[in-house]
Amino acid sequence: MTLMLRDLRARIARIEGFAPERQARVCPTGWKAVDAALSGGGLLEGALHEIHSPDPADGAAIGFAIRMLNRFQTLRPGQSALWASCRADLFAPGLHAVGVDPAGLVIAHCRTSEEILDTIEEGLKSKAVSVVFGEIGDLDFALSRRLQLAAADAGTTLVLLRPSRFGSESSAAVTRWRAEACPGGWTLTLFRCRTGRPGRWQMSGKVGECR
């Protein structure tokens, strides 16, 4: 790679909210086939990631998000995770049943998308939060870039859960996933990945492993 091309890529990375000179950590998903498709072998910390689902009631997206929550919290033991949502069925006892410690999770029940965004941005500013989750629909590119810049600046990971119908719109997210339940398990699709390889995996519903 020529010096000019390397400098150009570094400038573009800074515009997108990355600092090439800072070695950010990655968080492996724990699935070898999936991690092999990701740059560095895992999900970038201090970045924006999106999970898309065809139906808010589809448990595949929530299940994948909870796995990400557990994995990212291992990078910062003792810190809390923040989850901002308008849904009323997300509660600590249910998350505890799938391995999430309620003591390490702050759930913000919001009334509007604006409240969710405000909560997300305040959470990214907090040094006590390891990862922020938000459930939101419409999000234009300018706003997604602002969130990516905020996550990169704070070094705190942001994961957004969104309806699949927004998957074709532009986003500054580092990775964009689609999780969907299917007979016998669920499918996980990586349809956008910065410096990685898109892919699709059939997952087992019992043990959460790639088939």
Topology:
Blueprint lengths: L2 H13 L10 E2 L4 H4 L7 E2 L3 E6 L5 H15 L6 E6 L6 H5 L8 E5 L3 H13 L3 E7 L5 H14 L2 E7 L11 E8 L2 E9 L5 E6 L7
Parallel strand pairs: 3-7, 3-8, 4-5, 4-6, 6-7
Antiparallel strand pairs: 1-2, 8-9, 9-10
Structure description:
This protein is of the alpha/beta class and 211 residues long. It has one domain: P-loop containing nucleotide triphosphate hydrolases (Rossmann fold, 3-Layer(aba) Sandwich). 30% of the residues lie in helices and 27% in strands. The protein has an 8-stranded mixed sheet with strand order 5-4-6-7-3-8-9-10, sandwiched between helices. A two-stranded antiparallel ribbon has the order 1-2. Helix 6 links the parallel strand 6 and strand 7.
What is the CA-atom radius of gyration, in angstroms?
Answer: 16 Å
Low-confidence stretches: none
Spatial arrangement of strands, main beta sheet: 5-4-6-7-3-8-9-10
The number of helices is 6
For the record, the CATH class is: Alpha Beta
User: Number of DSSP strands?
Assistant: 10
Instruction: Kindly state the percentage of residues in helix.
Output: 25-40%
Q: Supply the helix-strand structural class.
A: alpha/beta
Number of domains: 1
Strand percentage lies at 25-35%
| Relevant CATH superfamily | P-loop containing nucleotide triphosphate hydrolases
Q: How does CATH name the architecture?
A: 3-Layer(aba) Sandwich
Q: Could you state the order of secondary-structure elements as H and E?
A: HEHEEHEHEHEHEEEE
CATH fold-level name: Rossmann fold
Mean pLDDT: 84
The N- and C-terminal alpha carbons lie at a distance of 37 Å
